Amino acid sequence: MDNNDLADAVMADIQIPSASMMDSMDDLFGEPTNLVVQAPLLLGPPAPAELVLRIAEMQRHGCCTAQCVSDASSNPIIALPGSEFVHLQYTSLGQELAVVDSVGNVQIFTGTTGLGRMSFAPTTGDSEAEGGRSGLDAVVGMYWLPQWPMDFRIPYVGPAVKTDGTWSSKLHYRDQQAPRLHHPVDGKTAFLYVTRNTLLTLCYQHDATTWGTASTTLEPLSTLDETLSHAAFCQQDNKLLLVTHDLRRHMRVYTITIDWNGTQGKDQYRSGTLRIAPSLLIGHSVSLEYVAPQHSEGTLLTSLQIILPVPIFAESSVPSYTTIVATFAQASYPSDATQQAQSFTTICRWHLEQVTQNLHPSFAKLQKRAAAAVTLPNKNTLRRQPDLVTAKVILTIQPMNHDTLIAFGASDGTVECRDRETWNIVAPTFGDTTTVTSLPQAGFEFTPSLEHSVHIMCNTDCAYMITLGVDQKLRCKPAALRYGWQAIDDGILDISGMHETAIACVAREHTLLTHHSNASALELFALLPPDLAPEQYRHLLFDITRALTRAHDLGSLDEKTKQRMLLGDNYIIRCLGAQLSLVSAPVAQPGIGAQLAWVVLTAKQAHFALFSSCSTTSPPDPATLHSLRGLAIWSLELFTASLATLFTVHSIFVAKPNETPATALASHIASSSSPLLHLVLCSYPRTLLRYLALALTRYFKLVASSLVNSPSLLIKTDLLETISKIKTLPFRLEILAAPDGLLGEIDRVVGEAYAVSTIGPRERAEAELTMLFSPAPDLPTSLNGAVKSIWTRILPKYTGEMDLGALYFYDTAGLILQSRERTGARAKRSVDVLTKLPIAEVFSLLALSALAASVSAQQSSPDLVSIISVLQTGLPSSILQEALTNSAGLSSEIASEFRVATPTWFTALPTDIQTYLVSAANSPSAFANATAGIASTLNGTAVMNSTSVAAAQSSILSSNSAEISSEVASASAAGTTSRGAGSGAASATSAGASSSSSAAGASMPTALYGMGLAGAVGLVGVLAL
After folding, report:
1. Are residues 623 and 493 in the same domain?
2. Which three-class secondary structure state does DSSP give residue 136?
3. Where does the record place the Mediator complex subunit Med16 N-terminal domain (predicted)?
4. Residue 600 half-sphere exposure, CB side, CA atoms within 13 Å?
5. DSSP of 944-988, one letter per residue?
């Protein structure tokens, strides 16, 4: 056979399997169609060595996922000596992380904080000790149990169907009363894992900090060939199914039942706590004695999955069974230069079916006096399905949307999505513009990469993937629309319908991701072009909102339902987040829709924080009230600006009596581009404003009563300043908070206007939806009567209770969402996005390099700028602190250190830094000129007296390292290690420092931040000799 002939080379490996590799008698004597296999059609680019090693790693053990994604981040984790991390796995909520090393040590990290960090959770129980582990203890399979009730509320999102010009999809939820398996305590979780030596371990959560374990053995081992290589779990009702694969290529299926053995007890926090001591019960289901692809027996298993049947509400057209999916990937080098390496993957499948067992008909011919007929139990069997062969190297298997779609991620950066019913690759249906079932069906796909990746991870719906290439670089790759987003108007081909289908698909996928607690839906908009047409933008927002929430019109609800919807319906917040994210251009000023979304989201944050913290049953402490003052002040500014806008429009009515209210209102909205009027006219933000005013009233009462208990003078001063805001307010807060106040009256006249216009509930909801998510100067005609009543009858009643002068001249710049071009360095002021407090502009040692860089062109020695940048992180913090206040004392301390021995923090500095310091000591005049240049520049920009320096010390020393510019971060990377070691050495020697002083140190000024550090540079250079 000619080795250059690819078809012959492939067909040479396709042989009818022998009887020894058959799975059952059905395979040996069954239908001939079961033996039909597919040959690889086209081979991809040759696999690099890194991919070959990755395939070999996947063949050795099943748990080798090197990357996973969660909204939570964690601290750096260090493996135990003699091992390395091989597997990471998050819970579905992303709040717990299991980390596995090469010898089976499992570390658990849980409990994200405000800084996005996770804490280590120790485990206790009957598991084996951490020491003395070997390769037999390596983990081959892991599974997190679903968490009750969050994971059981994820719906199945049906196809999006276009009816009468509107796209809609149905949501189907699981039966919450059906048997299920989860941790018996709400909000807690557990996971199971299997090791090579067939040890099954359950790790369950006791409380927020400790975990327990329970273990049992699946099978006793007699030879090393019986050790496991892969394992996979799935949940079936109130038990688990476990499939294992060993080195003999035997596959077994087990059933696992967990008896939690819960008892009521007490702990240090509360009484009536449920204590659990679980035990594991193992049942044998079925086994196969040899597992291999039908056309390439030598290929080894690389991944294993067991997938539940398609749920009933998915309306499958064919019977669905629990399916075991195994991939056998091969990526190898050619034996010589004349051959081409074969890289392909075989996908093998088995259905777990139940077969009724009946006795042979001959038993019915026995005598009548024989025993009664025996009913035999059903028997589980694995029925093999035809193999699927692809020329790609499959690295991941990911079921999606309740296991109705299976995604196979390949090393070339592509994803093959296969339909669960037919197992065919889902392809776009060109011309079908009325139904959307998935991203690939709508035309989204991943283009093949020119180079292979060794690790691939997709998000929940495979809209984008994270790849780790051969060069060890992470890359994010979103799917792309096959047809492109450019409109074609050639009179022959019209793809506008396909664009509409793609928009509907993105809206459907947004709904799917929103119902997954750990899935972020905003990244999905990377599939869209940045210049999305306004009409497409409007359709996207409306489709998202209709699918997620029905709470468009709160004005028609009673007070209790309004409050429940404000606190409990978070889906409308997701819709507003989508509206805020879809800003047309990075440098453009956000439109009214984005401005409205920004204000409503911030008001929602303020309402939730104030309402949940300012409880009347357990009043908060002064420190908590102090942390909320920024949100309270921002809310007062919002109310003031909204009232100022209302009375501005009222003055227009008075000045132009012949102009209709609707015309004047539209003219003002168009000229000001302000969303403040929509806050009052839309039912959801109007209701939110009234309850926010009620929460503010409670907040200020608590602040006034807690002043005497303030723990510090700073907190008391800030709280007094906060109270002064309410005293100087140009209106009474009760006007807005009362049910019969201004907002309450507007709510009633809007409801009356809808009633007079005789529009139905659906049209009323559409009108509210339009004003909230597609705000425009022209308001719905059904509100013309309400607009006239508001500005001619209601507002004049409150004119005497307002200070109109303070309202008109109030600065509302802080309420408007700035464009990205005006943020950052060009912003007039910096405000913390969460607390709404301005960030103080103070000089710090970490910003010294930025100041020095501005004068680097004037310096005769440009090296001094980078020297200072490195010393910011290389010098101990004690030296940096004392350089600001007592440079003469610093001289004596450093001198005493060098008399004993060269300090470790100095020897840890880079060699070029040490050389520069020594040369500066040999040339005092040159060094003085360089430092004088910095001093002259700083004297012209940031001269401070010693009092201001002392007052700002605490802010300087506590400044966040995130404020360092990218140049400072790269320059100080080499000194990060020496800082930690040097701090300890400096603190240890400073206690016994001599009181002698140096003339050079005594002459250094302390009025400047930069000169304090420059003086330290000079002292180190002189004393290093």
Report:
1. no
2. helix
3. 181-447
4. 33
5. --HHHHHHTHHHHHT--GGGS-HHHHHHTGGGHHHHHHHHHHHHH
Is residue 586 located within the same domain as residue 646? yes
Does residue 794 lie in a domain region? yes
Domain boundary among the residues 922, 937, 952 is at 937
For tokens 């401005």, what's the residue? 595
DSSP type of residue 825: G
Residue 964 makes CB contacts below 8 A (sequence gap 6+) with 846, 972
Q: Is residue 843 part of a domain?
A: no
Per the listing, tokens 């694995």 go with 382
Residues ≥6 apart with Cβ < 8 Å to 928? none
Same domain, 563 and 514: no
SS3 state of residue 735: helix
What pLDDT was estimated at residue 960?
29
Alpha carbons 665 and 677: distance in angstroms, whole number: 9
d(CA 352, CA 375): 22
Of the listed ranges 188-197, 579-588, 803-812, the one predicted with least confidence: 579-588
Other Cβ atoms less than 10 A from the Cβ of 513: the count is 21
The answer to the question of residue 821 being in a domain is: no
User: Across the chain, how many H-helices and E-strands are there?
Assistant: 32, 32
Q: How many domains does the structure of the chain reveal?
A: 3
Helices (H), 682-741: 683-705, 713-727, 734-737
Q: What mean pLDDT comes out for the span 500-514? A: 90
The H-or-E segment that residue 543 falls in is helix 534-548
Question: How are beta strands 435-436 and 160-163 bridged, if at all?
Answer: antiparallel
Quick one: three-class SS letters along 450-504? CCCEEEEEECCCCCEEEEEECCCCEEEEECEECCCCCCCCCCCCCCHHHHHHHHH
Tokens of 159: 């196809």
pLDDT-derived band at 817, boundaries 50, 70, 90: low
Structural domain boundaries enclosing 511? 297-333+342-358+374-527
Classify residue 778: in a domain, yes or no. Answer: yes
Q: What is the pLDDT of residue 350?
A: 95
Nearest to 506 by CA among 535, 543, 538, 458: 543
- Minimum mean pLDDT range among 273-287, 618-632, 763-777, 902-916: 902-916
Same domain flag for 519 and 555 = no
Q: Are 62 and 229 in contact (CB under 8 A)?
A: yes
Query: Does position 919 have pLDDT exceeding 70, yes or no?
Result: no
Question: Residue 34 gets which letter from DSSP?
Answer: G
749 and 864 fall within a common domain: no
Transcribe 192-240 into DSSP letters.
Answer: EEEETT-EEEEEEESSSS-EEEEEEESS--SSGGGSEEEEEEEEETTEE
Indicate whether 497 and 556 sit together in one domain.
Answer: no
Q: What is the DSSP letter of 793?
A: I
Tokens of 336: 């010589």
**How far apart are the C-alpha atoms of 858 and 860, rounded to whole Å?**
7
Phi, psi of 256 (to 5 degrees): -120, 125
Q: Are residues 701 and 763 in the same domain?
A: yes
Q: How far is CA 603 from CA 529, 675, 739, 834, 835, in A?
A: 30, 13, 19, 11, 12
Q: Residue 622: is the preceding peptide bond cis (ω within 30°)?
A: no
Task: Round to whole Å and give the CA distance between 969 and 980.
Answer: 16
Q: How many CB atoms lie within 10 A of CB 203?
A: 23
* Radius of gyration, alpha carbons of the chain: 35
Strand, helix or coil for residue 334: coil
Q: Can you tell me which residue has the tokens 């180190």?
A: 1020
Among 899, 916, 937, the domain-final residue is 937
| Residue pLDDT, tens place only, 267-306 | 544 445 678 889 999 999 899 988 999 878 788 999 999 9
**pLDDT tens string 966-975:** 332 333 333 3
Q: How many Å apart are CA 968 and CA 971, to the nearest integer?
A: 5
Does residue 589 sit in the same domain as residue 464?
Answer: no
DSSP state of 363: G
Specify the residue for token string 């990755």.
54
Query: Beta strands 279-288 and 303-307: pairing type?
Result: unpaired
